[in-house]
Amino acid sequence: QQQVKQSPQSLIVQKGGISIINCAYENTAFDYFPWYQQFPGKGPALLIAIRPDVSEKKEGRFTISFNKSAKQFSLHIMDSQPGDSATYFCAPRMDSSYKLIFGSGTRLLVRP
Amino acid sequence: EPEVTQTPSHQVTQMGQEVILRCVPISNHLYFYWYRQILGQKVEFLVSFYNNEISEKSEIFDDQFSVERPDGSNFTLKIRSTKLEDSAMYFCASIPRREGGEQYFGPGTRLTVT
To answer: Residue B7 half-sphere exposure, CB side, CA atoms within 13 Å?
Structure first.
C-alpha cells in the first residue's frame, strides 16, 4: 500500500512558537522522505528531506525527525514566522520510480 | 537558478476538447513527471517518464492522457477529450539523476474545463 497519512489538517501557531506536522506511512518501499512547502498559486518546493538511515536532520529552523520502526516522520518548525504560513506536504518517494506520494497537506497559519 | 517552466499558466477549455500542457524541465534532468492537484486536495502522481518512454503511470492516467518529449527540451501532457473532473492544477517535475534527486516542480498550469 502507498497510503500516507498527514496530520493535522490545519495548524495555527503564534509567531515564535513551534509548529509540528506529522506523517505516517505504510509502504516500506520508500527511500527518501521530503517535506514540501507550497504557497498559493505556486508549485511545491522542497523544504527539507531525510534518508531512512538518519533519525534527525536539522536545517536552520526546520527539523525532520524520522522513526523508521514506527513508520513515521515529522516536521518541526522552530521560531515560526508569519512568512512560514503555507501548506506543507510530506511526500515520501518510491525507491523504484522516484515518484512522490503526497500526504493530504497541512495548512499552517502563523499569527504575528 | 535553473527552474522548471510551464505554459500556459491558465487554460480554459470546453468539455470534450483536447488540451496540451507544456513543460520545459531543467536542461540536464533525466526523469520527468506530471502530477495534478484538484483544488484543495493533495497532489497526485500521474506519470513518470524516463529515456523517452513512460516508466510508470497511475490509474488516473487512462487512455485519454498521453505524454511526449518531442524535441529533447519540451515535455508535454495531452488530454484528448477533457472532462469536467480534469479541472485541476497540473504540475510538471523533474529530477537530475537517480540518487539524491530532489524533484523540482514547475509553477503549474491551472486547467479549467467548462
So the answer is: 2
